[in-house]
Write a structure and sequence with these properties.
By secondary structure, the protein is α+β, with helices and mostly antiparallel strands. Helix content is about 40%, strand content about 15%.
Length: about 110
Amino acid sequence: MKGIHPNYKSEAVIKCQNCGAQHNFGGTRDDIQVEICSQCHPFYTGKKVLIDTEGRVDKFRMKMESAKGRVKKVRKKKTLEEKVNEELASQFGKEKKKTTKAKAKKED
């Protein structure tokens, strides 16, 4: 079956965008660009380097710096007694409204 396989290029090049290194290889494309290669990757070099793709680390640091001045709201958990008191107060308020409506109807 002819015509279904891509053309093989023996002089293709891989270019690293981080350090600019070029590696020759064989493949179906003329050149391939990669973000990081074995010459600049921390695993292979042994150096502790922060690899930042698309500015994610800088974005995170800016976000954390802007959040330093904020004060977190402390949410106090209500005790059972406070919950019961609120429920009783709401029920008392409902009954008070009913009695005032009933008094208003009697006066009319």
